[in-house]
């Protein structure tokens, strides 16, 4: 069975959460897709600080009790990522970027020697055989414009880890009136339905 890890990151009871819920509901209906969800707002991961970063650079057998505790957070998130076949990112657009809570997650799973490594030819991803889905909810219309810095940022971070097969479902214009909002969400739900059929 295909396993999907769904990450939500909205501080509001908003549209990206609705897309994630639709993905999960359709996955259950379709069958063949086991879904795990992680709410990055509820997790409340702190911004990455030097003590935690330093704990990764100390051999496990040499870590202090504090370093072991700090390293456990990142280790657990990486193990969870590696245990799934598909990573689903439900992402609102905040000030043209990703929520800081999602950035805190990426800061802990993007670890040299764990999910990528440096070589003479440049960085090489170590997370192989996986794919990602981005469920992007935006108030305005940004896809395909210079203002959409979020999509290439996410693809670059995923690609650094070796996840290069990425599907993006956009729901845009969500703050431009009720009719455009409903139409955009309906189109996004249809795209998710078709995507799930391909995932299983």
TrEMBL record:
**Segments forming domain Flavodoxin-like fold:** 3-193
Enzymatic reactions: 2 a quinone + NADH + H(+) = 2 a 1,4-benzosemiquinone + NAD(+); N,N-dimethyl-1,4-phenylenediamine + anthranilate + 2 NAD(+) = 2-(4-dimethylaminophenyl)diazenylbenzoate + 2 NADH + 2 H(+)
Per UniProt, the cofactor note for this protein states: Binds 1 FMN per subunit.
Q: Name one Pfam family in it.
A: Flavodoxin_2
Instruction: Select a single GO molecular function from the record's annotations and give it.
Output: FMN binding
Known EC number(s)? 1.6.5.-, 1.7.1.17
Residues that hold FMN according to the record? 10
**Which Gene3D superfamilies does UniProt cross-reference here?**
3.40.50.360
Is Oxidoreductase included in the keywords of this UniProt record?
yes
Q: Which domain of life is it from?
A: Bacteria
EC top class, as a word: oxidoreductase
InterPro entries xref list:
Flavodoxin_fold, Flavoprotein-like_sf, FMN-dep_NADH:Q_OxRdtase_AzoR1, NADH:quinone_OxRdtase_FMN_depd
Q: Which cofactor does it need?
A: FMN
Which keywords has UniProt assigned to this entry? Flavoprotein, FMN, NAD, Oxidoreductase
| Family annotation (PANTHER family) | FMN-DEPENDENT NADH-AZOREDUCTASE 1, FMN-DEPENDENT NADH:QUINONE OXIDOREDUCTASE
| Role according to the record | Quinone reductase that provides resistance to thiol-specific stress caused by electrophilic quinones. Also exhibits azoreductase activity. Catalyzes the reductive cleavage of the azo bond in aromatic azo compounds to the corresponding amines.
Among HAMAP family, the record links this protein to: Azoreductase_type1
Subunit structure comment from the entry = Homodimer.
Family under the similarity heading: Belongs to the azoreductase type 1 family.
> What is the protein name stated in its UniProt record?
FMN dependent NADH:quinone oxidoreductase
Its source organism is Halomonas cerina
């Amino acid at each position: 069975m295909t396993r999907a890890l769904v990450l939500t990151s909205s501080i509001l009871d908003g549209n990206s959460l609705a897309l994630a819920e639709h993905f999960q509901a359709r996955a259950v209906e379709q069958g063949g897709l086991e879904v795990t969800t992680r709410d990055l707002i509820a997790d409340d991961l702190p911004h990455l600080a030097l003590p935690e970063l330093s704990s990764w650079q100390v051999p496990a057998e040499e870590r202090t009790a504090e370093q072991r505790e700090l390293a456990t957070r990142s280790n657990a998130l990486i193990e969870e990522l590696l245990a799934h076949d598909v990573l689903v990112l439900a992402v609102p657009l905040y000030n043209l970027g990703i929520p800081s809570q999602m950035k805190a997650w990426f800061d802990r799973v993007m670890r040299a020697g764990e999910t990528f490594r440096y070589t003479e030819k440049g960085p090489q991803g170590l997370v192989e055989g996986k794919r990602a889905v981005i469920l992007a909810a935006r108030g305005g219309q940004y896809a395909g414009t210079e203002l959409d810095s979020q999509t290439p940022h996410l693809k670059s971070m995923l690609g650094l880890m070796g996840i290069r097969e990425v599907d993006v479902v956009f729901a845009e214009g969500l703050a431009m009136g009720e009719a455009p909002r409903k139409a955009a969400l309906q189109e996004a739900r249809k795209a998710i339905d078709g995507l799930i059929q391909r995932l299983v």
